[in-house]
Amino acid sequence: MATITKKLKDAFIYLEQVRQHLGRLPSIDPNTRTLVICGYPNVGKSSFLRCITKADVEVQPYAFTTKSLYVGHFDYKYLRFQAIDTPGILDRPTEEMNNIEMQSIYAIAHLRSCVLYFMDLSEQCGFSIEAQVKLFHSIKPLFANKSVMVVMNKSDIIKVEDLDAERQELLKSISTVPGVEIMDASCHEEENVMKVRNHACEKLLTARIEQKLKGTARVNNVLNKIHVAKPQARDDVDRAPYIPDAVKELGKYDVNDPNRRKLARDIEAENGGAGVFNINLKDKYLLEDEDWKNDVMPEFLDGKNVYDFLDPDIAAKLQALEDEEERLEQEGFYDSDSDIEDEETEEIREKADWIRNKQKTMIIEARNRKSLKNKAIMPRDQVKKSFGEMEEHMYNIGHDTDKLREKVGKGKKNEGKALSGVDILKKNQGIQASRLAKKKMAAHQSDRLNDGLADGALRSQAERLAKIQRRERNRMARQGEGDRHSTAMLPKHLFSGKRGIGSTDRR
């Protein structure tokens, strides 16, 4: 690889020189609006570029000060333009031109732009007017399909009118070239420079628009979007377009004619112009009385909608409607069957009220249960409820309580039986009935951990399901029934803030 690299050393050196040369070239957009400034050396091209743009171009009173292309940018009619200052060109064959001159030739030939050819009539550049005219005719083939302007620079020293007749005829040979315009300019007069710049920009914009219109692709693109529909003739009758006679007799509008017809624009100008004059939209109303045009018609009057009273027969219609309402009310048309309630309807209504109250009570009880945080709750086995409350609850939920009453009745009958020997022995030993009742309750108390489970496999499955249920709650850090709520020992809003005494103010 090293051997191959050494063999290609000369090619790499050449490419490095090309890269450096390309890096020194300015960034020129070939597609944007461009002004190319060309001419002999020292005719004022760089001075003109400094006047119309902010480009930092070196200006010196000797030839070939500009040795490369300089680009400056400016705005005209909210559009960005670029102006290119080219090195001076000498009138000699292309083969004899050096690299500095060839840059100008390439810029003129290949950039789609408006060419400004500068001439120095004072001949302070060191070249005669004849030589400058000859150079223009020699590079004229490069101006094909371009907008060209010849700028007579340094007009503050000498103008075209001050030249002799022979030289004036020589300059006229330039103006005979089609599409070439001649203007005077002086970099010491800014208004003169801006006038030349603006005229060149207008000329360039016009040429670009004409070039776009000449392209068939754009025209075809527009024609493809337009469709002119022609109705199919149903008979041989020729139906010509109808133009009213009033339109035919209407003369052409002339601003300078004192007897011209008055337009809305003229009325606007007479009454203060735009922003002050307000058009009267009621002027074209067709009413019986012209004084009615500007009357304000209210939407509401005396609290009533005006549009409800526009009908002239509204009073008669309203009276007929009221009479019909009164007749229907007397006939009992509006009487409802619900006004007469029987016993069954009353019973249904009472049940519905009871259901509503029961639902409200259940909602309130559920909210109270949720609000319990660290409050004491009575154990379930210690809650005392009477038989009457149980019977009422069972009856309310729809169970038959007759069998419960029969069992209670049997229990009361057995209370009158004589005590057996075992009972007398327990009584003599001091065993209280309350302890016996507790042991009896404990004996018959259900095993909540293992009830409903046949074997250990079901027990482990139940525990696994319980863990799965707790998993989501633990992941979301939600409070469960096993959590204890502990309040803050020191509430921050009571114990933080400014100290009252001493210099321990932390704020």
UniProtKB/TrEMBL annotation:
InterPro entries: G_OBG (IPR031167), GTP-bd (IPR006073), NOG1_Rossman_fold_dom (IPR010674), NOG_C (IPR012973), P-loop_NTPase (IPR027417), Small_GTP-bd (IPR005225). Residues 443-507 are annotated as: Disordered. One of its GO terms (molecular function) is GTP binding. Residues 461-486 have a biased composition (Basic and acidic residues). Involved in the biogenesis of the 60S ribosomal subunit. It is found in: Nucleus, Nucleolus. NCBIfam families: small_GTP (TIGR00231). PANTHER family: NUCLEOLAR GTP-BINDING PROTEIN 1. GO terms for cellular component: cytoplasm; nucleolus; preribosome, large subunit precursor. GO terms for biological process: assembly of large subunit precursor of preribosome; ribosomal subunit export from nucleus; rRNA processing. This is Nucleolar GTP-binding protein 1. Keywords: GTP-binding, Nucleotide-binding, Nucleus, Ribosome biogenesis. Residues 33-205 form the OBG-type G domain. It comes from Spathaspora passalidarum (strain NRRL Y-27907 / 11-Y1). It comes from the Eukaryota. PROSITE patterns: G_OBG (PS51710).
